[in-house]
Amino acid sequence: MPWVDDGSAAALTDLYEITMAAAYSADGTTAPATFELFVRDLPEERAFLIAAGLDDALRFLEEFRFEPGAVEYLRSLESFDDSFLADLSELRFRGNVWAVAEGTPIFAGEPLLRVTAPIVQAQLVETFLLNTIGFQTLIASKAARVWLACDGRPFADFGARRGHGADAALKGARAAYVGGAAATSVVLAGIEYGIPVTGTMAHSYVLSHPDEYSAFTSFARTFPEGAALLIDTFDTVEGARIAARVAADLADEGITIRSVRLDSGDLGALAARVRDVLDDAGFPEIRILASGGLDEFRIARLLDSDAPIDGFGVGTELSTSGDAPNLEVVYKLVEDDGEPVMKTSTGKVTLPGAKQVYRTTSGDVIAGDVIALAAEDPPDGTPLLERVMRRGRRTVPPEGPTAARARTLAALDALPEGLRRLEGWDDYPVSTSNALHDLAAQLQSWR
Amino acid sequence: MPWVDDGSAAALTDLYEITMAAAYSADGTTAPATFELFVRDLPEERAFLIAAGLDDALRFLEEFRFEPGAVEYLRSLESFDDSFLADLSELRFRGNVWAVAEGTPIFAGEPLLRVTAPIVQAQLVETFLLNTIGFQTLIASKAARVWLACDGRPFADFGARRGHGADAALKGARAAYVGGAAATSVVLAGIEYGIPVTGTMAHSYVLSHPDEYSAFTSFARTFPEGAALLIDTFDTVEGARIAARVAADLADEGITIRSVRLDSGDLGALAARVRDVLDDAGFPEIRILASGGLDEFRIARLLDSDAPIDGFGVGTELSTSGDAPNLEVVYKLVEDDGEPVMKTSTGKVTLPGAKQVYRTTSGDVIAGDVIALAAEDPPDGTPLLERVMRRGRRTVPPEGPTAARARTLAALDALPEGLRRLEGWDDYPVSTSNALHDLAAQLQSWR
């Protein structure tokens, strides 16, 4: 505290996971159960999602355990008996997991993750899995839209300060990178995940100097191999002139200015004037970066109007997925002791049985998915879920976000044109197999 | 990892905080600077905010240090010299802090926190302070609206699974409690913060039994002093009948059913029918809880229609502040080496000088605020910022969320009626003192 260490992760759970575990234990229930994690409906602002968070989720499952302090806390609630608490402190996750690889586009109803384990184990990991996979998928999906808008120009995640807590700043940086960001401002994301980090200066740095010339000079001397200067503290075009003067004055010392950053005002009009100032001063190689309230729509408009911007910093809207800040991600029991089960609550029907998703392509472009029972004869297409854990141990090596990011970028290239638009997209065909349809109809009629 | 331990918190920062620190160090700048943390404009969905997150922020400042691993990582970037990195590894926060108490309503432009320290120290803590205070204030403010809607009935935070990462689940539970929630589902929030925890069962529990009768019976026997049963897995009214039957059948064993929970469908209409079923069966004392896609508007509509609901579980919309998922929280330099400074970027003007906020009341109700210079003769009203840290040590004892929650509830009672509405509220008068106004005009004319 105030940070949470590894051993606390199991206790980052809803209490009802533990009350249910206690009830299962009292019943002596040890049969395997299968849960699937999926998004019920996509937000109306999203044509597709990018799966993310799996590697962190698997690490959580590998290390899952209740620490003595957590067990003692549960004892203090006077709701759980000693025998259950003793079992809980010994409990580890020993289940099998199948999952969609990070960086894969997914659609409503398609399982991202399938967990099969004794029901107590499978149930106790629910809250954390939903939290980490749901959040990272949320941010990677937003980042992919920003990537599409940037049309080849790089963008960096600047959103840590507005992220929802520290874990969001860290895992959000990871997810943004998986979704296509070129870099992040978050130092810890560089340390933990090896993501490229980037950063310039804040307005306060300029304000703490007598004027912009002295601020820029000091900063450039500290970072002689390519400083990035923030030029909008007072007047952006004047700031560009001063940056050019500093670049000229310090050239003799072997100091180069790599870029200037605009963070306020009419970014498109200002970028054009700044480009002229820099070019006229003989610095066509100094890049113009833009930030300040950007999202995919604003970036697309700037580039549509030919604003000479070479890269973007995207903060709040990326780190909070501001237009669609949550996903309807759920984790549902689909098989119990080998038998398919089905919930029929109003508006919340869950299809029964362990499933697989098959994706077909047409040329280089994805053409449609079929959600089928995992046990049926496979239809055409490539299966999306692969086995990633057997009896609590990974069957695939840990994977950093760089491999996942490459998968995302390849997948975005393989999206149909009608899904690559920022709005007004086409439907993507996702159907259920006949066998799955029949099983659901059969279970529904039994009720 | 995947969780971040205490020592990583300093590295949860934007890289530019460190590049600026390096430039300041190279310049030999050690003069004190004052930064203020405030929200530029309120989201249009909010009439007021509830300050939260201070206690965690102070704990962060007390423990602030860069671990050897972080320093080595920075060295690997080949941008920082050895002397700076050596200083960085020794650096601790030794500044003075003034702050608004958690649970206090605040408005646009009012400093929640004021930090005075050598500029390197004051700058390096920016990202984390914005992240933790911004997020907790966001969630406490949403929770306060839910509290107003609940009109005396309790509500619990059920939002961990949809929160933005693990820290959001934990600190969101804390902030929801500060904002008025009666409890949370998050076990770790009980452990770390002593917040009351609550939980019932999931649909999967019902599905893993042959029928609802056996599921409810097993669960009630495990929690004989008052189980809460989820009755909407198949048909809510039938579920209520079965719950009543279980309550009757187990009464001989001394087992009581405390409540039933509805999680889908037309909650108002179903609650009325469930109430009738339970009353007719002789169980008027079994409470009806409702959850499932709730927010303050839906709760207000349910209660307006006299739905017999005794308590609410609020998830996603609370834990992500779904209608307003971010605050325009900023941390701005206002004084440097004793001199007031002022940024004049388009749309982002910051008022200069260290400030205090004075709040006046009319009877029991708050009537208006004046933002003034901290050094000027105080106008009428109660000052909102108090000293909380001197030279890096707290001058007030650590405070758990219970005291902050009590402050919130008292403050909500003291809000003018025109601010207590969920929409269409009145403006609350916030003005600046003449001295502050004159100073800003003077600095602006100098440019």
Explain this structure.
Two copies of one chain form a homodimer. Chain A is built from 17 helices and 19 strands. By secondary structure, chain A is α/β, with parallel strands linked by helices. Chain A folds into two domains: 256 residues, nicotinate phosphoribosyltransferase; 170 residues, Aldolase class I (TIM Barrel, Alpha-Beta Barrel), CATH 3.20.20. In chain A, a hairpin with a 2-residue loop joins strand 14 and strand 15. The first copy, chain A, is elongated. Chains A and B meet through helix 1, helix 2, helix 3, helix 6 and helix 7 of A and helix 1, helix 2, helix 3, helix 6 and helix 7 of B.
**Whole-number tally of structural domains of chain A:** 2
For this structure, the CATH topology of the largest domain in chain A is: nicotinate phosphoribosyltransferase
**Main sheet record of chain A:** 7 strands, antiparallel
Percent in strands of chain A: 15-25%
Q: Uncertain spans of chain A, ≥5 residues at pLDDT below 50?
A: 1-5
Q: Summarize model confidence as the mean pLDDT of chain A.
A: 94
Helix amount of chain A, in percent?
Answer: 40-55%
Distance between the termini of chain A: 48 Å
The CATH superfamily of the largest domain in chain A appears as nicotinate phosphoribosyltransferase
**Coarse morphology of chain A:** elongated
Q: What's the count of strands of chain A?
A: 19
